Model the fold of this input.
Amino acid sequence: MTLIARSPKITATHLERKAVVYIRQSTLKQVQNNTESLHNQRALVERAQAFGWNATRIEVLDADVGHTAATTEGRDDFTQLAAELALGHVGIVFGWEVSRLARNNADWYQLLDLAALVGALIADIEGVYDPRSYNDRLLLGLKGTMSEAELHMMRQRLNAGRLSKVERGDYVQHLPTGLVRTEQGRVEFDPDAQIRRCIALVFSTFEKLGSAMKTLHSLKTHHILLPRHQTSGLRKGELLWKEPTESIVVDILHNPAYAGAFVYGRRPADPLLRKPGHRGSGVVRKPMEEWVTLQQGVYPAYITWEAYLRNQERLAENAQEGLAKRMRQQGAQGAAREGSALLPGLMCCGMCGYRMRVAYKPQVRYLCDGLKRHYHEKMCMSLDGASIEEVVVNAFFDALRPAQLDALQALLAEQAKEEERLRQYHRDQVTRASYEAHLARRRYEAVDPENRLVAASLERNWEEKLLAQRQAEEEAQRFESRVVYPTLPPDLRESLEHIGPALPELWASGKISNEYKKRLLRSLISRVIATRTAADRIELKIVWISGHYSVTQVIPPIYRQSDVSNYQKLVSRLDELTRQGITDPEIAAQLTAEGFHTARRLAVTVGTIHRLRKDHGQVSSLHRHRKVDMIDGFWTLPGLTRELGVGQNWLYQRIYRGELTAPDVERIPNYRVYLIRNDPDLLARLKAETEASRRYDTACRQSHS
Done:
């Protein structure tokens, strides 16, 4: 095989690796309009083929079109290029010019260092450069510096021109819904009368109610939709009528353009607050005195400037009142810094997906008011915090038990076995590809050179096998560079087993601060998703940091006993046990054992039994005899005393003195309640004794008088 290199810097080692053509344009507008630039960059594939690379070994990276080279943020292909360079898979990198690869020296020199380390080349339309060569490295460095300086100069000129237009008031900025710019450049009210009336309605409602949330509530009550011009997304440029939300109402009230003012510098981007991978992050709202430009009377106004200032003052006062209220609530707990709630930031609503917030009323409660705050819908849930935290903490303790550690170790061991199986697969692929390449070489060397047709076919087969071998080796290297699954070393397992039994006691002793408790919980728990399945049932889905989750149920305290699950069954079961003559404490224990509970406790109490009987007209065995004269052929003490015309003490005294005994007297088990046999002779004897007792009492009173 003879490979023709058009540059002496390209060697057989470079040709064994793949060639990468990196394509990029800075903005989507350039992608749409400057199509010739994209065509020229794709033509670099032909340049790579002319240098000796097979078409199958040329990779085109074009996913970064529409992204600036000032940073690596959002440039996934550039990150992939750096990774492939570090692994030694790339022999040469093609770019139309240096600015296509990077426009800041940090990224550019990092790329050059990687290329020099693995011996890769850099090529553009002017030549091929070896970063290991002093002269080439100097030239590449100058090109990178000039590219960065060019970007700086372009930004400087653009910013100067923008600020010049801003000072004159000619800068064309985005207009809010309700204002439009004509073809002549003038700003006018939107010709749609309905849009104008809706915008004016927001301001008039706020002026009357004095609160953004009250304004939102009024709009929702009257089912009013607000117009919004889409500035991004699939429906960019369209007018949509949307349900009013807190953000829409507040944005309208804060926008000075509705007061006819041209403003620049109201919401600049702070580089220190930007989050990588989040476009539009880092935007801060500046106070009015820090705005770069403020010119009144530039646009048609929906409200006067004085009304706009009054609205801003009112919104600021409302925000300060809300902040003061929250501070008072936190101060009442005596833990403003740490907070007594253990799951803030972890609790999520299973109904709407919003993150739940903490409230102290005065106990900890987790509230989901996301829909209420943003759309003025009903609050999803207000859940008792103590019962939820108890279940989550117990689940956390369970995760530290030896059985759970065994499960974790078994899972990690299974993952390690799977990793080894995949590693062996890649080894086998490399071995097979190497054997097939060696076999193809032997066949090529054994053929008669005069038989050119067969020799050419065997040569192509040898090249294909060499390519397959190289690809298998690169794939194996990529697999080896992956993040290896963690293991559970014996010393770490011993530490976890030691702290597991002692942690619950330390947790309850108060020696661990709330802040440290939260850190411990977050070490294993990613989030907790709560869903109310019934009035007294909460389903918790505890998502662990491994991605697995466990589902459990919580029975929180509620207000009304009638809202408890199986309430009617509880009442029926109470009546059944009462008819069996069981005492109230025994009934309470039996109902608790059967899984019944009260509204505020996980057990049934005697007090709850009394209230249930009162609500449903049930009578206990203890009180049933007081309302009737006879039960099952026996006199009750209240009934017999009414028959004899004496007090209950008269009968109790004879029972205690042994004058009334069995079988004339029976006692209800477990109660100090007696029944007297309905016997005519016994009744006649008792009546005679009552008459004698009355005569004796009368004689005693007369003698004393």
Q: What stands out?
A: The CA atoms of residues 23 and 62 lie 5 Å apart. Residues 561-624 form one domain.
